[in-house]
Amino acid sequence: MSWKGHLALNYRRSAEDRTVLHDLHSGPLRVLQSLYPESPGICHTVLVHPPGGIVGGDVLEIDAALAEGSHALITTPGATRYYRSTGATGTQSLRARVAPGARLEWLPLETIAYSGCIGENHLQFELAPGAEMIGWDVLALGLPAANLAFERGQFAQRIELPGRWLERGIVDASDARLLDSPVGWAGHRVLATMWFAVGGALANARRDELIEMARGLAGEHELARTAGTTSAHEGVVVMRVLAPRVEPAMGLLTKVWAAWRKEAWGVEACMPRVWRT
Fold it and tell me: What is the pLDDT along the chain (277 residues), one digit of tens a residue?
């Protein structure tokens, strides 16, 4: 049985300077909680998919709209899992529209592609002038700790900031050149991508500071040899990390997120409680 799920998230800034969420869902995709652990102006939203994973034929869609002045941190309580397929594609997509003066933090836990899956993950972020965001995406192939390698199947990934940055690719389990070559995944099975983006252009000094922060933190980390940060566009800073497991990659991303948040927005990091449960 395949699932069709749609979730609409609408954030607005109230007269009391509170970021308020109105959500509407159909199917098994919904908001578990909206929390305010740091201030009324920042809404932490936890998304859940009760069936526990995505199989062939599933189509899950998220539409997020952030009105002017709102600030949302969106995360998940656990990994998104793409299970083995008999031939159909399982798809999850996000379209986020961020208004002037709004801030979005898209920080889901990792995506796991099980052997035999046929999966797609589409992310699109439309940032108006004055909008800003921090986002990440972590893809793990198979379950190395359980000796369940990614031996069959494929996973298609698309991350887009229209007119600014497009990341698109297909990871096929049979593509040894991509997965094992030193100019590809180099034998690693986790790829993490993280970005800071604005709806205009970053001032040169600000962009350089964000790049140097990420490079400095990566240089002190166990993944120093497989992490790199650059600016793909004047309004985007991107960090990539290859890792043998999810945990060290997430550890580095979390450090960079905290540093970027404080530097760019003057806001101390507040770890979502669900990450520690």
Answer: 688 999 999 999 998 999 999 999 998 899 999 999 999 999 999 999 988 799 999 999 999 999 999 999 999 999 999 999 999 999 999 999 999 999 999 999 999 999 999 999 999 999 999 999 999 999 999 998 888 999 999 999 999 999 999 999 999 999 999 999 999 999 999 999 999 999 999 999 999 999 999 999 999 999 999 999 999 899 999 999 999 999 999 999 999 999 999 999 999 999 998 998 7
Contact yes or no for 104/74 (Cβ under 8 A) = yes
Helical residues (DSSP H) of the chain, grouped into ranges: 176-180, 204-219, 246-265
What is the domain range of residue 270? 4-276
Q: Is the pTM of this model over 0.70?
A: yes
Number of domains in the chain: 1
